[in-house]
């Protein structure tokens, strides 16, 4: 069924039914595939014929998930990985070599920071950080050996935002790859490729699944770029399991309705906390007080489900608040149906120095709130009681 509507595409796009005529896509828990004859095996391995040869390369379930995500985000092709970090590592590994340079947003996930500072650094890849709120500084960091611009927007956990069309123009001017971690926004709220990005990456573990069940990641882009990704991934082996791919593909059917509720609840929480005397700062893209509010309104359809706050009283205030929560889960995860509170300075971003954390707006009193799908009255009451 052809449609231009996100919800219909997410629900009605699926692989061909088997002879059993199943309504919901079947799960193909197989590591390998049978060939009709020796010639078919040769043709498939020579890429002269399309088909599955080994589930490390492709599987009907991963193919369905990839095809759906391509349709939803406006990409030509994609590759699904075991985790979101596997997607970032694979993208870096496929396109970077010793002597290359990256310009990255300073505010990135802690494990991405570790890739840049420890893993790829020992292989001779250098980087410079730029601030999302200082777009005027980005071009000055591009060098003759710069191969990639990498950015999270909205960022984790600072909820900073940069104009994607601006960065796309900058990347095109200097002939470098432009890669966007679109995890916080999902294709429902933001579509980086349509705004000029070369590659869009998701930790599908987060909102794509949205229920805290499975791990997964995906890399989306043009057929030419994804061919390079596949060439690298076939041998490094970060492939998504068929079962997790099936879960994630089914999860996409409810992404729109879930994100609508996440965004609705998160905005109400942000508006409530912005007026609370025990809260020093609230960051949420669709609050008018957000420094990049106008950019967020331009490139996102809603503000997302993450609210980052700074509690008065530093680390003691943050601990008191988190220990006072009864319904919220204290977890390092996010984007679940259940509301979650995280203290980045001692968990997800604990490997950064204090100076590095402050540079991206992570104070000792900073708390990342992943607002779930519970009734808004219960969410607000839990926060109110914890701040009492």
Task: Report what the structure shows.
By secondary structure, the protein is of the alpha/beta class. The protein is built from 15 helices and twelve strands. Helix 3 runs parallel beside helix 10 and helix 13 packs across helix 15.
In the predicted model, the low-confidence regions spanning at least 5 consecutive residues are: none
Q: Give the SSE string.
A: HHHEHEHEHEHEHEEHHHEHEHEEHEH
- Summarize the main sheet: 7 strands, mixed
- Oligomerization category of the chains in this entry: single chain
User: How large is the count of helical segments?
Assistant: 15
DSSP summary, beta strand count = 12
Pathway: Amino-acid biosynthesis; L-methionine biosynthesis via de novo pathway; L-homocysteine from O-succinyl-L-homoserine: step 1/1
Family: Belongs to the trans-sulfuration enzymes family. MetZ subfamily.
Protein name: O-succinylhomoserine sulfhydrylase
GO molecular function: carbon-sulfur lyase activity; pyridoxal phosphate binding; transaminase activity; transferase activity, transferring alkyl or aryl (other than methyl) groups
Give the SSE layout.
Blueprint: H1 6-12, H2 38-45, H3 60-73, E1 77-81, H4 84-95, E2 101-105, H5 110-119, E3 126-130, H6 138-141, E4 146-152, H7 164-174, E5 177-181, H8 186-189, E6 199-203, E7 217-221, H9 223-236, H10 242-252, H11 255-274, E8 279-283, H12 293-299, E9 306-311, H13 314-324, E10 329-330, E11 340-342, H14 354-359, E12 366-370, H15 376-387
Parallel strand pairs: 2-3, 2-4, 4-5, 5-6, 10-11
Antiparallel strand pairs: 1-7, 6-7, 8-9, 9-12, 11-12
Helix pairs in contact: 3-10, 4-9, 13-15
Catalytic activity: O-succinyl-L-homoserine + hydrogen sulfide = L-homocysteine + succinate
Keywords: Amino-acid biosynthesis, Aminotransferase, Methionine biosynthesis, Pyridoxal phosphate, Transferase
GO biological process, one term: 'de novo' L-methionine biosynthetic process
């Amino acid at each position: 069924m052809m449609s231009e509507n996100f919800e219909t595409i997410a629900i009605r796009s699926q692989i061909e039914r088997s002879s059993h005529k199943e309504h919901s896509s079947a799960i193909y828990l197989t590591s390998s595939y049978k060939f009709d004859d020796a010639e078919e095996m040769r043709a498939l391995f020579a890429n002269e014929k399309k088909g599955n040869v080994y589930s490390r390369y492709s599987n009907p379930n991963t193919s369905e998930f990839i095809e759906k995500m391509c349709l939803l985000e406006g990409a030509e092709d994609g590759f699904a990985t075991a985790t979101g970090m596997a997607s970032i590592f694979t993208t870096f590994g496929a396109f970077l070599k010793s002597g290359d340079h990256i310009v990255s947003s300073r505010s990135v996930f802690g494990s991405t920071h570790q890739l840049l500072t420890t893993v790829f650094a020992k292989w001779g890849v250098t980087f410079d950080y730029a601030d999302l709120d200082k777009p005027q500084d980005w071009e000055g960091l591009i060098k003759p050996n710069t191969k990639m611009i990498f950015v999270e927007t909205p960022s984790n956990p600072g909820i900073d935002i940069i104009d994607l069309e601006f960065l796309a123009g900058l990347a095109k001017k200097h002939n470098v790859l432009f890669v966007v971690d679109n995890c916080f926004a999902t294709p429902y709220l933001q579509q980086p490729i349509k705004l000029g990005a070369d590659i869009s990456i998701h930790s599908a573990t987060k909102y794509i699944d949205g229920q805290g069940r499975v791990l997964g990641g995906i890399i989306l882009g043009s057929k030419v770029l994804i061919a390079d990704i596949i060439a690298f991934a076939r041998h490094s082996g970060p492939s998504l399991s068929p079962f997790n791919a099936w879960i994630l593909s089914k999860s996409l059917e409810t992404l729109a309705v879930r994100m609508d509720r996440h965004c609705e609840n998160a905005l109400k929480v942000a508006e409530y906390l912005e007026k609370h005397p025990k809260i020093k700062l609230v960051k949420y893209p669709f609050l008018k007080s957000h420094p990049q509010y106008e950019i967020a309104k331009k490139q996102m359809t809603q503000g997302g489900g993450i609210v980052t706050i700074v509690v008065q009283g530093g680390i003691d205030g943050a601990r008191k608040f988190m220990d006072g929560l009864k319904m919220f889960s204290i977890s390092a995860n996010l984007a679940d149906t259940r509301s979650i509170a995280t203290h980045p300075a001692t968990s997800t971003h604990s490997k950064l120095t204090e100076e590095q954390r402050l540079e991206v707006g992570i104070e000792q009193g900073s708390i990342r709130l992943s607002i779930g799908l519970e009734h808004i009255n219960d969410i607000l009451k839990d926060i109110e009681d914890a701040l009492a």
